[in-house]
Design goal:
Two copies of one chain form a homodimer. Chain A is of the alpha/beta class. Chain A folds into two domains: 170 residues, 3-Layer(aba) Sandwich (Rossmann fold), CATH 3.40.50.1970; 195 residues, Dehydroquinate synthase-like - alpha domain (Dehydroquinate synthase-like, alpha domain, Up-down Bundle), CATH 1.20.1090. Chain A contains 15 helices and eight strands. In chain A, helix 7 packs parallel to helix 9. The longest helix of chain A is centred in the middle third of the chain and has 23 residues. The radius of gyration of chain A is 20 Å and the shape is globular. Chains A, B: This is Iron-containing alcohol dehydrogenase. Chains A, B: One of its GO terms (molecular function) is methylglyoxal reductase (NADPH) (acetol producing) activity.
Chain lengths: 379, 379
């Protein structure tokens, strides 16, 4: 087990009828005006927006709204929101949406306090030193962003999909109400499951030894995701399944799943980011369903014992990679690049984009050549 | 699953050679003078005290020392330390020790800021509203106090062993270096294991349904404690076992093990507190090894499925209670009141003390009569 520092100051408010508490929490924190950041409008259909607006109104909290954060969120929208946050002198950002909205909101929270180009955080030019407080209401359990300091955004000009991480952008309060996810399309639940399982696997398979407790917790998270995803595909309104699913996705990337690990491998994520950078219609979870098993196949000799343990613990089958792929098929996730609409000659382009981050990975340092081979396996 | 709020702002600094970082952390937080609270002197034997003193000196941090916190810590020592903290105008409390020292330090941190009697927090007369910052260096993994806001102290005048809980006394930074536990006597490791397993079981068996993820995490913690305790009884210097053991005891009571539960049952703990209030030589873990299986036996019809699941998952045996008792025997923990030195006619006295807290429990509300029966089973 490696030395580690665990520090997660997000207050997680979890359960039924918690969305309507947002005004109360903001008032307690003396917030008077927020920038409400949102996506394409689904929160108007499922009633979340109305609940939020009413709660803000009842607690006399002013708001200015910025809409239109899209899946695989883009830098231009972040910059637009930063301008508005500054002009309107808001005290806090309130993100109401899924991973894209919350990731963008983190950049807005930090960018509002930074004179330079917010992209500097993503390219590692500068570290975040401060941010205005961020509050989140999660509408789609998947990325775990509701309880960590990570943000991933795409720069449309350069097709770079990069991330930054900072303690300053952990949500101060994060509301997760599983009930508001009853009406999600099935494929979003599937993509969320794949995303969260991938987060756990990035740690689980990073090559660190003697992480017995973390390994068991990781298997617990994946088992619960497998079990609840199957239940939700049958009955999207199963509250208990939604709640266990939601909590699993949060714990998959709030630090708990990686305790004592060497920070995770993250090659599969980096390679996947190339997919959605080239084709923004590729959902992150869908891309991971294709890339992660390909990476596992490429490195399998380095982790043969762990793969067998994973397979047996989660699926009752020793061939962990095959068990995972079969389960992805079963729940309707894509399992190769062709299903995502990529063609043979895209491999070179994807390799080019992903290789900007090379060498990558911890279990095995991947160079351009390795990345290309993994993409070929994924094809 | 129940609604919940999870908020744990302790920064956990975990691993080898972390004790010597205390000065650096305190300096970063602008702490200039601490009250160093300690126990009977074991930290002078194992080298921890020397490391702490050197680190404080190197970072120009003044200290005043208060020694003599004993196992099953007492109110008089807390009051003594509060007086000194006030007189010396310290900026923070630095607890260096096990659960007793840290629990006492929490009371000192809160009591220093409170004009009245610090016992008021324990009897629920008043809630903690503020505290001076608390820093901890854990020398004995057991109670989980290093990453929560709980404090248990005995009032020697009334023989009451009560607790309070407050967000204000979570350690700001908590250092856990498994290596400094190499020299612990075996029975302290055993008691620590029993204590932590009992914490998990208080949640696991509290009667809440549909807590699939928390249940699996709980089983993970207990499995890891069982595995590592056996390893440590063979080789107390096994770092990886110490580290997994230590992390398991922390997670057993930092909020993670009870996610979505109804707060835990805690009858066994309340009854055990009577044991060590009557006889302060009874270690908390040893008392729990006797009381918890007795409680399980008394309520077993209410949790038969869960007991079978627990038994199978942890020990591979359906009779969960018997498996647990057999394992306690195997590791050398006591399994009845007689082994702890109690006699038949102590049952009435213990019932009297424990019943001050009655009715208690969530799974089953226990009255005086129930408590007496459980103590008879335990005898």
């Amino acid at each position: 087990m490696n030395n580690f520092v665990f520090y997660n100051p997000t207050k997680l408010v979890f359960g039924r009828n918690t969305v309507e508490k947002i005004g109360e929490y903001l008032k307690k924190d003396k917030i008077k005006k927020v920038l409400l950041l949102a996506g394409g409008g689904s929160i108007k259909k499922n009633g979340v927006y109305e609940k939020v607006v009413r709660s803000l109104f009842e607690h006399s909290i002013e708001k200015v709204e910025v809409w239109g954060v899209r899946p695989n969120p883009v830098l231009s929208k972040v910059k637009e929101a930063i301008e508005i946050a500054r002009k309107e002198k808001v005290d806090a950002i309130l993100a109401v949406g899924g991973g894209s909205v919350i990731d963008s909101a983190k950049a807005v929270a930090a960018g509002t306090k930074y004179e330079g180009n917010v992209w500097d955080f993503y390219i590692g030019k500068i570290k975040v030193k401060e941010a205005i407080p961020l509050y989140t209401i999660l509408t789609l359990s998947a990325t775990g962003t509701e309880m960590n300091g990570n943000s991933v955004v795409t720069n449309e000009d350069t097709l770079e999909k990069y991330s930054f991480s900072s303690i300053h952008v952990y949500p101060k309060i994060s509301i997760v109400d599983p009930e508001i996810q009853f009406t999600l399309p099935a494929n979003q639940t599937v993509n969320g499951a794949v995303d969260a399982i991938s987060h756990v696997m990035e740690y689980y398979f990073d090559g660190t030894s003697n992480t017995q407790l973390a390994d068991r917790i990781d298997e617990s998270i994946v088992k619960t995701l497998v079990e609840t995803t199957e239940k939700l595909l049958k009955d999207p309104h199963d509250y208990e399944a939604r709640a266990n699913f939601a909590l699993s996705t949060t714990l998959a990337l709030n630090g708990i799943s990686g305790l004592g690990h060497s920070g995770g491998d993250w090659s599969s994520h980096a390679i996947e980011h190339a997919l959605s950078a080239l084709n923004p219609d590729v959902a992150h979870g869908a891309g991971l369903a294709v890339v992660f098993p390909a990476w596992l196949t490429y490195v399998k000799d380095l982790i043969s014992d762990k793969l067998a343990k994973f397979g047996v613990e989660v699926f009752g089958i020793e061939d962990g990679i095959n068990a995972l792929k079969e389960w992805y098929k079963k729940i309707g996730a894509p399992v190769n690049l062709r299903e995502l609409g990529f063609e043979k000659n895209d491999i070179e382009k994807l390799t080019d984009i992903a290789s900007k981050m090379a060498p990558m990975g911890r279990l095995k340092k991947l160079e351009r050549e390795d990345i290309k081979k993994i993409l070929e396996i994924a094809f």
